[in-house]
Amino acid sequence: MNYRSKKSIKGTVGIAAAVMLLAGCGGSDIESRTEDTEKDDALQLQQNIEEQDRAEAGSEEQPEQSGQSGHQDQAEEQDQSGQQGQSEQAERSDRQGQLPQQSPGGESGGRLPGRLDAGRILEEQSFQVVLNDWGEVRFVSYEPDHSGENPLEDVTFYLLRGEEILYQFPYIGTEDTSDYGMYYDVKFVVFTDTNADGKEDVVIGAEYMTGAGPQGAIPHVVVRIYEDYGDHFTYNEGFSDKINDYLPWESNVLAKDVKRLIQLTGGNGQLTDYESYSGKWRVSTGYVAAYEETAPVSRNELTCQITNGNEFSGSLFTEQGMTQRIASVDEITGTIQNGELFYDFTDDGWGGTGTLHITFLPNQINIDVLNHQMAEENASGYGISGMYEMKIRE
After folding, report:
1. CA-to-CA distance for 90 and 234, rounded, in angstroms?
2. Mean model confidence pLDDT for the chain
3. Residue-number span of the structural domain to which 178 is assigned
Protein backbone atom coordinates (compact mmCIF):
# COMPACT_ATOMS: atom_id res chain seq x y z
CA MET A 1 0.00 0.00 0.00
CA ASN A 2 1.49 3.31 -1.00
CA TYR A 3 1.91 6.06 1.50
CA ARG A 4 -0.86 8.64 1.66
CA SER A 5 -0.02 12.35 1.67
CA LYS A 6 -0.60 14.41 4.77
CA LYS A 7 -3.28 16.43 2.96
CA SER A 8 -5.56 13.38 2.83
CA ILE A 9 -4.55 12.20 6.29
CA LYS A 10 -5.52 15.51 7.83
CA GLY A 11 -9.06 15.12 6.59
CA THR A 12 -9.46 11.67 8.16
CA VAL A 13 -8.32 12.43 11.69
CA GLY A 14 -11.38 14.49 12.70
CA ILE A 15 -13.03 14.79 16.02
CA ALA A 16 -12.99 11.04 16.66
CA ALA A 17 -9.20 10.96 16.56
CA ALA A 18 -8.88 13.77 19.07
CA VAL A 19 -11.38 12.10 21.38
CA MET A 20 -9.57 8.78 21.14
CA LEU A 21 -6.30 10.46 21.99
CA LEU A 22 -7.75 12.25 24.99
CA ALA A 23 -9.18 8.98 26.23
CA GLY A 24 -5.76 7.36 25.99
CA CYS A 25 -4.17 10.27 27.87
CA GLY A 26 -6.70 10.19 30.71
CA GLY A 27 -8.73 13.26 29.68
CA SER A 28 -11.64 13.74 32.06
CA ASP A 29 -13.84 16.03 29.97
CA ILE A 30 -14.02 14.17 26.66
CA GLU A 31 -17.78 14.34 26.32
CA SER A 32 -18.02 18.07 26.99
CA ARG A 33 -15.17 19.20 24.73
CA THR A 34 -14.91 18.64 21.02
CA GLU A 35 -11.85 19.19 18.89
CA ASP A 36 -13.32 22.40 17.47
CA THR A 37 -13.91 23.80 20.94
CA GLU A 38 -10.35 23.05 22.00
CA LYS A 39 -8.93 24.63 18.86
CA ASP A 40 -11.12 27.70 19.39
CA ASP A 41 -9.85 27.97 22.97
CA ALA A 42 -6.27 27.63 21.80
CA LEU A 43 -6.77 30.29 19.11
CA GLN A 44 -8.47 32.62 21.58
CA LEU A 45 -5.59 32.15 24.02
CA GLN A 46 -3.08 32.98 21.30
CA GLN A 47 -5.06 36.09 20.29
CA ASN A 48 -5.16 37.25 23.92
CA ILE A 49 -1.40 36.87 24.19
CA GLU A 50 -0.81 38.71 20.91
CA GLU A 51 -3.13 41.55 21.99
CA GLN A 52 -1.28 41.80 25.30
CA ASP A 53 2.06 41.90 23.48
CA ARG A 54 0.82 44.63 21.14
CA ALA A 55 -0.48 46.60 24.13
CA GLU A 56 2.90 46.28 25.82
CA ALA A 57 4.69 47.33 22.64
CA GLY A 58 2.36 50.31 22.27
CA SER A 59 3.12 51.53 25.79
CA GLU A 60 6.81 51.66 24.88
CA GLU A 61 6.16 53.87 21.82
CA GLN A 62 4.45 56.85 23.53
CA PRO A 63 5.36 60.32 22.08
CA GLU A 64 8.23 62.13 23.78
CA GLN A 65 7.23 64.67 26.47
CA SER A 66 8.83 68.13 26.78
CA GLY A 67 11.18 68.81 29.66
CA GLN A 68 13.52 66.62 31.70
CA SER A 69 10.80 65.68 34.16
CA GLY A 70 8.60 64.37 31.36
CA HIS A 71 11.43 62.18 30.00
CA GLN A 72 12.17 60.80 33.45
CA ASP A 73 8.51 60.00 34.17
CA GLN A 74 8.12 58.31 30.78
CA ALA A 75 11.27 56.25 31.25
CA GLU A 76 10.08 55.08 34.67
CA GLU A 77 6.65 54.18 33.28
CA GLN A 78 8.19 52.30 30.34
CA ASP A 79 10.58 50.44 32.62
CA GLN A 80 7.79 49.39 34.95
CA SER A 81 5.53 48.47 32.04
CA GLY A 82 8.31 46.49 30.35
CA GLN A 83 9.19 44.63 33.54
CA GLN A 84 5.54 43.86 34.21
CA GLY A 85 5.04 42.67 30.62
CA GLN A 86 8.11 40.44 30.75
CA SER A 87 7.03 39.03 34.10
CA GLU A 88 3.51 38.29 32.81
CA GLN A 89 4.92 36.77 29.62
CA ALA A 90 7.29 34.50 31.56
CA GLU A 91 4.45 33.48 33.87
CA ARG A 92 2.26 32.60 30.89
CA SER A 93 5.08 30.62 29.33
CA ASP A 94 5.73 28.62 32.50
CA ARG A 95 2.04 28.05 33.17
CA GLN A 96 0.88 27.21 29.65
CA GLY A 97 4.01 25.72 28.05
CA GLN A 98 3.91 28.47 25.40
CA LEU A 99 6.12 27.64 22.39
CA PRO A 100 7.11 29.96 19.54
CA GLN A 101 4.71 30.25 16.62
CA GLN A 102 6.33 29.33 13.30
CA SER A 103 5.45 28.91 9.67
CA PRO A 104 5.81 25.35 8.33
CA GLY A 105 9.17 24.90 6.65
CA GLY A 106 10.51 28.25 7.83
CA GLU A 107 12.90 29.45 10.48
CA SER A 108 12.42 28.99 14.19
CA GLY A 109 10.60 32.15 15.16
CA GLY A 110 9.03 33.88 18.13
CA ARG A 111 10.01 33.18 21.70
CA LEU A 112 11.86 30.06 22.77
CA PRO A 113 10.67 28.34 25.96
CA GLY A 114 12.71 29.21 29.01
CA ARG A 115 13.37 25.59 29.87
CA LEU A 116 12.39 22.07 28.88
CA ASP A 117 10.56 19.56 31.03
CA ALA A 118 13.07 16.76 31.57
CA GLY A 119 10.24 14.23 31.76
CA ARG A 120 9.24 14.94 28.15
CA ILE A 121 12.73 14.51 26.66
CA LEU A 122 13.17 11.30 24.66
CA GLU A 123 16.63 10.34 25.88
CA GLU A 124 17.04 7.47 23.40
CA GLN A 125 16.45 9.90 20.51
CA SER A 126 18.51 12.79 21.90
CA PHE A 127 22.19 13.04 20.97
CA GLN A 128 25.34 15.03 21.65
CA VAL A 129 26.67 15.96 18.19
CA VAL A 130 29.03 18.34 16.41
CA LEU A 131 26.69 19.87 13.84
CA ASN A 132 28.11 22.12 11.13
CA ASP A 133 28.45 25.78 12.22
CA TRP A 134 26.39 25.12 15.33
CA GLY A 135 29.38 23.36 16.87
CA GLU A 136 28.96 20.88 19.70
CA VAL A 137 25.30 20.81 20.65
CA ARG A 138 22.72 18.44 22.03
CA PHE A 139 19.90 17.47 19.70
CA VAL A 140 16.77 16.90 21.77
CA SER A 141 13.55 15.10 20.84
CA TYR A 142 10.74 16.51 22.98
CA GLU A 143 7.39 14.77 23.38
CA PRO A 144 4.17 16.81 23.24
CA ASP A 145 1.94 17.41 26.25
CA HIS A 146 -1.36 15.95 25.08
CA SER A 147 -3.06 16.96 28.30
CA GLY A 148 -2.63 20.59 27.27
CA GLU A 149 -4.63 22.86 25.00
CA ASN A 150 -3.78 21.04 21.75
CA PRO A 151 -4.49 17.29 21.80
CA LEU A 152 -2.91 16.88 18.36
CA GLU A 153 0.30 18.73 19.21
CA ASP A 154 3.32 17.31 17.41
CA VAL A 155 6.70 16.23 18.74
CA THR A 156 9.25 19.06 18.90
CA PHE A 157 13.02 19.13 18.33
CA TYR A 158 15.63 21.46 19.81
CA LEU A 159 19.33 22.25 19.76
CA LEU A 160 20.79 22.91 23.22
CA ARG A 161 24.19 23.96 24.50
CA GLY A 162 24.25 23.04 28.13
CA GLU A 163 20.87 24.20 29.46
CA GLU A 164 20.56 27.01 26.89
CA ILE A 165 18.04 26.46 24.07
CA LEU A 166 19.72 27.60 20.85
CA TYR A 167 17.07 26.63 18.33
CA GLN A 168 13.66 25.06 17.91
CA PHE A 169 12.98 23.18 14.66
CA PRO A 170 9.82 24.36 12.89
CA TYR A 171 6.64 22.32 13.01
CA ILE A 172 5.73 20.68 9.70
CA GLY A 173 1.96 21.18 9.94
CA THR A 174 -0.55 23.79 11.00
CA GLU A 175 -1.28 24.89 14.56
CA ASP A 176 1.78 23.07 15.96
CA THR A 177 0.61 19.73 14.55
CA SER A 178 2.02 17.39 11.90
CA ASP A 179 -1.16 17.04 9.76
CA TYR A 180 -0.40 13.29 9.69
CA GLY A 181 -2.43 12.20 12.70
CA MET A 182 -1.71 11.60 16.36
CA TYR A 183 1.92 11.49 17.45
CA TYR A 184 3.05 8.06 18.65
CA ASP A 185 6.86 7.89 18.86
CA VAL A 186 10.19 8.89 17.30
CA LYS A 187 11.64 5.89 15.47
CA PHE A 188 15.03 7.30 14.43
CA VAL A 189 17.12 10.43 13.90
CA VAL A 190 19.82 10.56 11.22
CA PHE A 191 22.40 13.27 10.57
CA THR A 192 23.40 13.16 6.90
CA ASP A 193 23.92 15.45 3.93
CA THR A 194 20.69 15.28 1.91
CA ASN A 195 21.35 18.04 -0.65
CA ALA A 196 25.09 17.69 -1.36
CA ASP A 197 25.97 21.09 0.12
CA GLY A 198 28.62 19.72 2.48
CA LYS A 199 26.46 20.19 5.59
CA GLU A 200 24.82 17.49 7.63
CA ASP A 201 21.07 17.82 7.63
CA VAL A 202 18.63 16.26 10.10
CA VAL A 203 16.39 13.39 8.98
CA ILE A 204 13.70 12.26 11.44
CA GLY A 205 11.39 9.27 11.33
CA ALA A 206 8.38 9.94 13.55
CA GLU A 207 5.43 7.59 14.00
CA TYR A 208 1.76 8.61 13.89
CA MET A 209 -1.70 7.04 14.07
CA THR A 210 -4.71 8.42 12.23
CA GLY A 211 -7.44 6.80 14.32
CA ALA A 212 -9.47 6.23 11.14
CA GLY A 213 -9.88 3.19 8.91
CA PRO A 214 -8.65 -0.40 9.36
CA GLN A 215 -5.04 0.74 9.67
CA GLY A 216 -5.78 3.81 11.77
CA ALA A 217 -4.40 2.30 14.97
CA ILE A 218 -1.22 1.02 13.28
CA PRO A 219 1.73 3.39 13.87
CA HIS A 220 3.28 4.41 10.56
CA VAL A 221 6.55 6.22 9.96
CA VAL A 222 6.61 9.70 8.45
CA VAL A 223 10.02 11.00 7.39
CA ARG A 224 10.84 14.70 7.65
CA ILE A 225 14.00 16.30 6.27
CA TYR A 226 15.41 19.50 7.79
CA GLU A 227 18.15 21.19 5.76
CA ASP A 228 20.76 23.34 7.50
CA TYR A 229 20.99 26.92 6.20
CA GLY A 230 23.53 28.21 8.70
CA ASP A 231 21.40 29.99 11.30
CA HIS A 232 18.22 27.98 10.79
CA PHE A 233 16.82 24.73 9.39
CA THR A 234 14.19 24.52 6.68
CA TYR A 235 11.75 21.64 6.31
CA ASN A 236 12.01 20.27 2.76
CA GLU A 237 8.42 19.19 2.31
CA GLY A 238 8.73 18.12 -1.33
CA PHE A 239 11.71 15.84 -0.75
CA SER A 240 10.17 14.45 2.44
CA ASP A 241 6.95 13.59 0.60
CA LYS A 242 8.98 11.92 -2.15
CA ILE A 243 10.68 9.67 0.39
CA ASN A 244 7.41 8.94 2.20
CA ASP A 245 5.77 7.80 -1.02
CA TYR A 246 8.16 4.83 -1.07
CA LEU A 247 7.29 3.68 2.45
CA PRO A 248 4.52 1.06 2.76
CA TRP A 249 2.17 1.81 5.62
CA GLU A 250 2.84 -1.44 7.44
CA SER A 251 6.59 -1.53 6.80
CA ASN A 252 9.13 -1.63 9.60
CA VAL A 253 11.00 1.41 8.29
CA LEU A 254 14.67 1.50 9.27
CA ALA A 255 17.09 4.42 9.19
CA LYS A 256 19.28 2.63 6.64
CA ASP A 257 16.27 2.27 4.32
CA VAL A 258 15.72 6.02 4.41
CA LYS A 259 19.40 6.80 3.82
CA ARG A 260 19.31 4.54 0.76
CA LEU A 261 16.16 6.26 -0.51
CA ILE A 262 17.78 9.67 -0.08
CA GLN A 263 20.77 8.53 -2.12
CA LEU A 264 18.64 6.99 -4.85
CA THR A 265 16.10 9.81 -5.17
CA GLY A 266 18.17 12.84 -4.26
CA GLY A 267 20.34 12.93 -7.36
CA ASN A 268 23.50 11.95 -5.48
CA GLY A 269 24.55 9.26 -7.96
CA GLN A 270 23.78 5.61 -8.59
CA LEU A 271 23.61 3.24 -5.65
CA THR A 272 26.69 1.03 -5.45
CA ASP A 273 26.51 -0.14 -1.85
CA TYR A 274 23.58 -2.53 -1.48
CA GLU A 275 24.29 -3.72 2.05
CA SER A 276 21.31 -1.79 3.44
CA TYR A 277 19.03 -4.36 1.74
CA SER A 278 20.28 -7.13 4.06
CA GLY A 279 17.54 -8.78 6.07
CA LYS A 280 14.24 -10.57 5.51
CA TRP A 281 11.73 -9.24 3.01
CA ARG A 282 8.22 -10.50 2.35
CA VAL A 283 5.31 -9.86 0.06
CA SER A 284 2.85 -7.23 1.33
CA THR A 285 -0.60 -8.21 2.56
CA GLY A 286 -2.10 -6.69 -0.57
CA TYR A 287 -0.68 -9.59 -2.54
CA VAL A 288 -3.27 -11.94 -0.97
CA ALA A 289 -6.06 -9.38 -0.63
CA ALA A 290 -8.45 -11.69 -2.53
CA TYR A 291 -8.59 -13.99 0.50
CA GLU A 292 -11.17 -13.50 3.21
CA GLU A 293 -9.95 -12.64 6.69
CA THR A 294 -10.50 -16.20 7.87
CA ALA A 295 -8.41 -17.72 5.08
CA PRO A 296 -4.78 -18.71 5.73
CA VAL A 297 -2.14 -16.27 4.56
CA SER A 298 0.52 -17.37 2.10
CA ARG A 299 4.16 -16.72 2.94
CA ASN A 300 6.65 -15.47 0.39
CA GLU A 301 9.99 -14.49 1.91
CA LEU A 302 13.42 -13.53 0.67
CA THR A 303 16.26 -13.68 3.16
CA CYS A 304 19.43 -11.99 2.00
CA GLN A 305 22.84 -11.04 3.34
CA ILE A 306 24.87 -8.58 1.28
CA THR A 307 28.56 -7.99 2.01
CA ASN A 308 31.42 -6.09 0.37
CA GLY A 309 28.92 -3.67 -1.09
CA ASN A 310 27.26 -5.99 -3.63
CA GLU A 311 27.99 -9.66 -2.83
CA PHE A 312 24.64 -11.43 -2.34
CA SER A 313 23.79 -14.65 -0.51
CA GLY A 314 20.37 -15.79 0.58
CA SER A 315 17.28 -17.94 -0.01
CA LEU A 316 13.74 -17.70 -1.36
CA PHE A 317 10.91 -19.45 0.47
CA THR A 318 7.21 -19.77 -0.38
CA GLU A 319 4.31 -21.46 1.37
CA GLN A 320 0.87 -21.82 -0.14
CA GLY A 321 -1.63 -20.83 2.52
CA MET A 322 -4.49 -23.20 1.70
CA THR A 323 -2.46 -26.36 1.00
CA GLN A 324 0.63 -25.50 3.09
CA ARG A 325 2.83 -26.64 0.21
CA ILE A 326 6.39 -25.36 0.52
CA ALA A 327 8.91 -24.51 -2.18
CA SER A 328 12.32 -22.90 -1.84
CA VAL A 329 15.54 -22.02 -3.58
CA ASP A 330 18.45 -22.18 -1.18
CA GLU A 331 22.02 -20.91 -1.29
CA ILE A 332 21.41 -18.16 -3.79
CA THR A 333 24.70 -16.36 -4.48
CA GLY A 334 25.97 -13.78 -6.92
CA THR A 335 27.13 -10.22 -7.51
CA ILE A 336 24.63 -7.36 -7.81
CA GLN A 337 25.36 -5.18 -10.83
CA ASN A 338 23.35 -2.10 -11.78
CA GLY A 339 20.63 -3.08 -9.33
CA GLU A 340 20.15 -6.59 -10.76
CA LEU A 341 21.12 -10.17 -9.91
CA PHE A 342 20.55 -13.29 -12.04
CA TYR A 343 20.70 -16.75 -10.48
CA ASP A 344 20.02 -20.10 -12.16
CA PHE A 345 18.38 -22.71 -9.92
CA THR A 346 18.05 -26.42 -10.59
CA ASP A 347 15.56 -27.48 -7.93
CA ASP A 348 12.83 -25.56 -6.11
CA GLY A 349 11.88 -28.51 -3.93
CA TRP A 350 9.51 -29.82 -6.60
CA GLY A 351 12.10 -30.47 -9.28
CA GLY A 352 11.45 -27.17 -11.02
CA THR A 353 14.22 -25.16 -12.69
CA GLY A 354 14.59 -21.59 -13.91
CA THR A 355 16.37 -18.28 -13.44
CA LEU A 356 15.73 -15.80 -10.65
CA HIS A 357 15.90 -12.20 -11.88
CA ILE A 358 16.24 -10.14 -8.68
CA THR A 359 15.97 -6.35 -8.98
CA PHE A 360 16.70 -3.92 -6.16
CA LEU A 361 14.32 -0.97 -6.28
CA PRO A 362 14.43 2.09 -3.98
CA ASN A 363 12.47 0.42 -1.20
CA GLN A 364 11.53 -3.06 -2.36
CA ILE A 365 13.00 -6.15 -4.00
CA ASN A 366 11.28 -7.79 -6.98
CA ILE A 367 11.89 -11.40 -8.07
CA ASP A 368 10.83 -12.50 -11.52
CA VAL A 369 11.21 -16.22 -12.32
CA LEU A 370 12.42 -16.59 -15.92
CA ASN A 371 12.45 -19.73 -18.07
CA HIS A 372 10.61 -21.78 -15.45
CA GLN A 373 10.41 -25.50 -16.21
CA MET A 374 8.25 -27.74 -14.06
CA ALA A 375 9.30 -31.34 -13.46
CA GLU A 376 7.23 -33.94 -15.30
CA GLU A 377 6.50 -35.83 -12.09
CA ASN A 378 5.14 -32.67 -10.41
CA ALA A 379 1.40 -33.29 -10.68
CA SER A 380 0.54 -30.45 -8.29
CA GLY A 381 1.95 -27.72 -10.48
CA TYR A 382 3.39 -25.96 -7.45
CA GLY A 383 6.86 -24.46 -7.26
CA ILE A 384 8.88 -21.26 -7.51
CA SER A 385 7.33 -19.39 -10.42
CA GLY A 386 5.78 -16.08 -11.33
CA MET A 387 6.56 -12.67 -9.86
CA TYR A 388 7.19 -11.75 -6.23
CA GLU A 389 7.16 -8.12 -5.04
CA MET A 390 8.91 -8.00 -1.68
CA LYS A 391 7.84 -4.74 -0.02
CA ILE A 392 7.76 -5.49 3.69
CA ARG A 393 10.93 -5.41 5.76
CA GLU A 394 11.13 -7.52 8.92
Report:
1. 28
2. 76
3. 6-48+99-269
